[in-house]
Amino acid sequence: MSTYNVVIIGSGPGGYVAAIRCAQLGLKTAIIEKYDTLGGTCLNVGCIPSKALLDSSEHFHKAEKEFGEHGIQTGKLTVDLNQMIKRKDDVVDQTCKGVAFLMKKNKIDVYYGIGSFKDKETISIHGKEGKKEEIKAEKVIIATGSKPVIIPGIEYDKKRVITSTEALKLKEIPNHLIIIGGGVIGLELGSVYARLGSKITVVEFADRLISGMDSTLSKELQKVLKKLGFDFHFKTKVNSAKTKGNKVILTASNSKGENISLEGDYCLIAVGRKAYTEGLGLENVGIETDDRGKINIDENLQTKVPGIYAIGDVVKGAMLAHKAEEEGIFVAETIAGQKPHINYNLIPGVVYTWPEVASVGYTEEQLKEKSVNYKVGSFPIRALGRARASMDIDGLIKVLADKKTDEILGVHMIGPRVADLIAEAVVAMEYRASAEDVARMSHAHPTYTEAMKEACLAATENRALHL
Amino acid sequence: MHFEVKIPPVGESITEVTISSWKKNNGDFVEQDEIICEVDSDKTSFEIPAEKAGKLNILKQEDETVEVGTIVCTIDTESTNNTPSSQSENKNEDHEESDSPDEVHKTGEIIEIVVPEVGESITEVTIAEWTKENGSFVEKDEIICEIDSDKATFELPSDATGILQIIAQSGDTVKVGDVVCKIEVGSSTSKPKESQSSSSKTAPETKRSNESYVKGHPSPAANKILNEKGISPSEVKGSGVDGRITKEDALKASKSQKEEKKGVSEETGDNNRSSRREKITNLRKTISKRLVSVKNETAMLTTFNEVNMKPIMDVRKKYKDQFKEKYEVGLGFMSFFTKACCIALKEWPAVNAYLDENEIEYHDYCDISIAVSTPKGLVVPVIRNAEKLSFQGIESEIIRLAGKARDGKLTIPEMTGGTFTITNGGVFGSMMSTPIINPPQSAILGMHNIVQRPFAENGEVVIRPIMFVALSYDHRIIDGRESVSFLVRVKQLLEDPMRLLLNV
Ligand SMILES: Cc1cc2nc3c(=O)[nH]c(=O)nc-3n(C[C@H](O)[C@H](O)[C@H](O)COP(=O)(O)OP(=O)(O)OC[C@H]3O[C@@H](n4cnc5c(N)ncnc54)[C@H](O)[C@@H]3O)c2cc1C
Fold it and tell me: A149 CA distance to ligand 1 centroid (A)?
């Protein structure tokens, strides 16, 4: 039986990054994945394929709506959805192979099959066609990720009532796609099909979109999605959804207590994801999950069983690939005797609509709740030369800073490429920079990043230059 | 005063470095710890901070290649600056509770306190600890500082009454005659507010109000390093913008000594693989230098013998209580050994001599150095004219000196001038050793533990308490015959203590 210093269950961004870091630290490492390809949700049915389709559909949208203005005549445009999906599959395929290569390069043993605890040190792996083996581990990292949540009353049939996984490989462009949930995944996939011509209706229980983020972003995002043809029902609770022939019928009740009924040809369930621990045999080692199925961990991300750690979507915290990666590194280094640290408040949240949405640190709502005295500096994207040149004029950057010390407490962005821009805010905040610090740093002209500088100037003493 | 800034040793095998850039101009006023120069070695580049505040005088130019230890600039610490005084840098978190400087009636006079002459051959000392805080009010003759030299620790009293301004920091090595602090002369009064305006330039206050919220905030990498070292960011002085702790600050940080002991016991058992670096004390530095030079510069070798301790033990057993009652000190083995050595030294004067280049200095007296181990290292106080002392005289002198040694209170004269050394490794359980000569002496006697061993006596095997003894000696002036005879004579005297009395 092979013995390892560390065995990792699950090869998503949490698991495979942990494996690489363990190997870098000289630990003999193995990783177990139940599917045939490595990379987990993120690479196979999450971040990467959704971005591939978002980019393709945005090209189409631009060609259709903006090329004329640029002086490019296209004639009649058509969408080859099969090709779009195939290109996406190729991107996924290359990325997953990249992970397999990294495993090989770092001499990490990869086992395909369902990993489950036999006891604290023994993991059994149930492979395909009844193949079964066992390996020994000094330390185990659980990185089994998450699965979509299906709410009661909804008949998930994978054909017309679907989750993100199916939405990434539809055979046709829906006429009317109803999306349950106004969160990140729903709005991203909704954007894909809206750009390709679908009518989109979002049914959301809360009173705004992306409800965890700063409400300014919700408002701005709602505006731009409305322009794209989105319809919204807020404070509305879905009661049922089911396929009837070529249609999907959805019933819901709104805040006034009225029952409404919607009819579309597809319904995407995007109400969140839940931790996934099925088949893991947690009961054999005495690890428990909380009421939402997440594995309980301590501040070192260790479960109550010493030597067994858990990271990523399967534990508390934001369900984001980069959060899972940081945790993977954290646990690997902790196992190697180092003392790393994660600043959870500075893990950025990102939505890849167009314009993109990105945010880090405290929202205005949180600062109010904590009764922190703060000031706001805001700068609209449309005031940038770069934005007018590219015709991407929607959005703004909002900087929240401590009233007394000028320390940046939160940065909230909606605009072109802000998913990339947010990194500047993270760096500034890791070093606890003040708004004026950033305002005094040179930002290349013309770029979208100038909005960050201007928002910081605005926060400093309300002295934005180009407003 | 001109303070010299040298290229510090940066790593094994690096002997020279190149000055890549001066961050400050010649003649600039620099603050303590401000980075003044960037230097490249073939392995890395590093920065040189100003060790003192003052006016910069650059001696080596950019692109010059210089050896480690070269003086690259001097800092004129006398030169004044118009910014708040540089001493403000060493902030005192709890300075409120000490006598507030605001209530001091100043005369305007400033007195400098320098490192006093502490003994021949001592040219530099290390500031062990300031017992008074910067900015606090001190009385004349009050102890303000503890100083380590390579021979002893001594205390520095204040020469005046007034406010203390510390210049040399704990851990700094300073030369005899260097200014370590200033006293702003003044008397303590109880009418506070008037004098406040005159003291408005008092550093800690202005500094405090300027202090940024970010002071002491570690960068992500610095944070991890500090966690691993078990150091809290509050113990580290940040050199980054507004006092941020940079990765380099964290790499250089070391734990304060008190914390360390705690850390070690906490970590054990957890597969701890961390290591620590500590600056060695002057005492340790001197010990190491001396030991190596003795090994290199003398022709040292060791002769052994064994001593049947039964006769002495019998004597002790018999008279121990009476002795104690009469003299109020215990009757130990040391007095027997000291007496025996004194007699033998008289008979073999080379063992009691110094070699001084072309001359041999013989001593007609026996000043016996006794090695005493203390928390800071080994010290060797001297029993003067041991040959004249009674058993009781020797025992009480040893007790007195050992006590002072443990308290770090020995003076330099009390530790210099011995003609022969006795060291007792037996107290730690050593069975046999080859002690190293204590220069300029020529020989040392090593005592060891007493063990019950089978022993042939009158053709029969009996069990006797046996001690092995060793004599290391400098073969350049002591011949084999002398050294061996000396040790045999010591053995003879110890095995038949009557001889000590009769001197036969
Ligand atoms: C449509 C979509 C878009 C997304 N877009 C983004 C984005 O743009 N940015 C972002 O940061 N995040 C995004 N996410 C979220 C992101 O995918 C997750 O946060 C991330 O994948 C979590 O990583 P993980 O390593 O914890 O788990 P996962 O990526 O879920 O990986 C877990 C792996 O463990 C395997 N596994 C489970 N149980 C076992 C077992 N018993 N034995 C062996 N293997 C097992 C699973 O098969 C899976 O491969 C998106 C998610 C979705 C669904």
Answer: 14
Residue type, B410: L
Residue B55 maps to which CATH number?
A: 2.40.50.100
Q: Which of these three, B28, B55, B83, is where a domain ends?
A: B83
Q: What is the number of the ligand 1 atom nearest to the C-alpha of A319? A: 19
Which residues of chain A neighbour B220 with C-beta distances below 8 Å? 341, 343, 430
Helix (H) or strand (E) holding A230: strand A230-233
Does B215 lie at the interface with A, CB-CB under 8 angstroms?
no
Q: Which residues contact A30 (CB under 8 A, 6 or more apart)?
A: A2, A4, A6, A7, A8, A108, A109, A110, A111, A135, A137
- Crossing angle of helices A13-24/A321-335, nearest 10°? 30
Helix residue spans in B182-281 (DSSP H):
193-198, 203-210, 220-229, 247-252, 257-267
Residue of B224, B247, B249, B273 to mutate when probing chain A, most A C-beta within 10 A = B224
Six-digit token string for A445: 């002209």
Supply the pLDDT for residue B88.
41
Helix (H) or strand (E) holding A152: none
CB B369 within 8 A of CB B402: no
Domain range for B429: 298-502
C-alpha to C-alpha distance for A180 and A162, rounded to whole angstroms: 10
In order of their start, the domains of chain A are 3-148+274-344 (3.50.50.60), 161-271 (3.50.50.60), 355-459 (3.30.390.30)
The helix (H) or strand (E) run that includes residue A402 is strand A396-402
Of the candidates A402, A430, A437, the beta carbon closest to that of B220 is on A430
Give domain status of residue B43, yes or no. yes
Q: Which residues of A touch B (CB under 8 A)?
A: 337-341, 343, 402, 405, 407, 430-432, 434, 437
Chain A residues touching residue B269 (CB < 8 angstroms): none
Nearest to B227 among A341, A343, A434 (CB): A341
Q: Considering only residues 191 to 210 of chain B, which have any Cβ-Cβ distance to chain A shorter than 8 Å?
A: none
Ligand 1 atom closest to Cα of residue A167 = 1
Which residue of B lies nearest to A330 if distances are taken between CA atoms? B224
Give the end of a domain, one of B18, B51, B83.
B83
- Which residues of A are less than 8 Å from B212 in CB distance? 405
In a domain, B322, yes or no: yes
Catalytic status, residue B356:
no
Instruction: Determine the Cα–Cα distance for residues B394 and B400; give it in Å rounded to an integer.
Output: 10
Which of A359, A458, A352 minimizes the C-alpha distance to A409? A359
The answer to whether residue B272 neighbours chain A at the CB level (below 8 Å) is yes
The Cα B278–Cα B263 span in angstroms is 14
Q: Six-digit token pair at A213?
A: 């983020």
Any bridge partners for residue A359, and if so which?
A349, A412
- Distance from residue A43's CA to the centre of ligand 1 (Å): 8
The interface predicted TM-score of the complex, written ipTM, equals 0.78
Is-above-0.80 flag for pTM? Answer: no
Q: Is A257 left (phi over 0), alpha (psi -120 to 50) or beta?
A: left
| Per-residue pLDDT tens digits of chain A, which is 467 residues long | 899 999 999 999 999 999 999 999 999 999 999 999 999 999 999 999 999 999 999 999 999 999 999 999 999 999 999 999 999 999 999 999 999 999 999 999 999 999 999 999 999 999 988 899 999 999 999 999 999 999 999 999 999 999 999 999 999 999 999 999 999 999 999 999 999 999 999 999 999 999 999 999 999 999 999 999 999 999 999 999 999 999 999 999 998 999 999 999 999 999 999 999 999 999 999 999 999 999 999 999 999 999 999 999 999 999 999 999 999 999 999 999 999 999 999 999 999 999 999 999 999 999 999 999 999 999 999 999 999 999 999 999 999 999 999 999 999 999 999 999 999 999 999 999 999 999 999 999 999 999 999 999 999 989 999 98
Q: Are B168 and B32 in contact (CB under 8 A)?
A: no
